[in-house]
Amino acid sequence: MATPLPQILSNLHNAADAAGRPPPRLLAVSKTQPAEAVAALAAQGQTAFGENYVQEALAKMQELQRLGLEWHLIGHLQSNKAEPVAMHFDWVQSVDRPKLVTALARYRPAERGPLNVLIQVNIDDESSKHGCVPEDVEALAAAILAEPNLRLRGLMAIPAPWPEAERRRDAFVRMRTLFEALAARHPQVDTLSMGMSSDYAEAIAEGATLVRIGTALFGARPRPA
Ligand SMILES: *Cc1c(COP(=O)(O)O)cnc(C)c1O
């Protein structure tokens, strides 16, 4: 079941209030959703959308160009697709290796301004997930900072869906610790992207500044992703 946008926004506010934190940004995750569903949310004031698949995203961007939306790539990115991504996206949240940093920087057109990037961290060290290990964050940050076409904004994680609330919380806390250390060294770092439909309130309680919500906003995806 889709939850209306004002209800989701109010949930984000309440979770942030309860934690004594500023409300996070909402990224509407529109993967596998048709362009009309994106346009419907945009008409209600939502501006930032997250996509996982490059070809699908490029088609929607083209169709919705006149709306001036902000597009985030949140799915795994192969270096051979870096060119269209660097040209058309506003943010890439899934940067996890030096080769991708170089490729995105090479193809970012100067007239578009720096591409905003987040370093994806494999915080629960799952073999099935992409992302760098926490120990590699600083080296990757240095590589990004060396590229004038890229702007390091922070960190992203997809923690394991542990059944135990305590383990979920622990992953979010470890992400916040990494984020605060990075932000202390690099003042332009302002974004901690964590929390999805099932766990966004917990992520906000532990310091998420951006949550990525798909199912709760749009309802179940039309095809599995
Ligand atoms: C699909 C996806 C989401 C949204 O997940 P929901 O459970 O539908 O809210 C968030 N982040 C990433 C990286 C995703 O791939």
Report on this model:
It is a single chain. Helix 4 (82-88) crosses helix 5. By secondary structure, the protein is of the alpha/beta class. The chain has one domain (5-218): TIM Barrel (Alpha-Beta Barrel), CATH 3.20.20. An 8-stranded parallel β-sheet has the order 7-6-5-4-3-2-1-8. It contains 9 helices and 8 strands. It has helices spanning 5-19, 35-43, 54-63, 82-88, 98-107, 137-145, 165-185, 200-205, 215-218, and strands at residues 25-29, 48-51, 70-73, 91-95, 115-121, 150-157, 191-193, 210-213. It is globular and about 40 Å long. Helix 7 (165-185) links the parallel strand 6 and strand 7. The structure holds pyridoxal-5'-phosphate (PLP). Pyridoxal-5'-phosphate binds next to strand 8 and helix 9. Residues 7-222 form the Alanine racemase N-terminal domain. Pyridoxal 5'-phosphate (PLP)-binding protein, which is involved in PLP homeostasis. Its cofactor is pyridoxal 5'-phosphate.
Largest sheet: 8 strands, parallel
> How many DSSP E strands?
8
Helix content: 40-55%
**Residues in β-strands, percent:** 15-25%
Shape: globular
Catalogue the ligands.
pyridoxal-5'-phosphate
Structural category is alpha/beta
CATH topology: TIM Barrel
- Neighbour order of strands in the largest sheet: 7-6-5-4-3-2-1-8
Q: Kindly state the mean pLDDT as a whole number?
A: 96
The assigned CATH architecture is: Alpha-Beta Barrel
Order of helices and strands: HEHEHEHEHEHEHEHEH
What radius of gyration results from the CA coordinates?
A: 17 Å
| Uncertain regions spanning at least 5 consecutive residues | none
**Tally of discrete structural domains:** 1
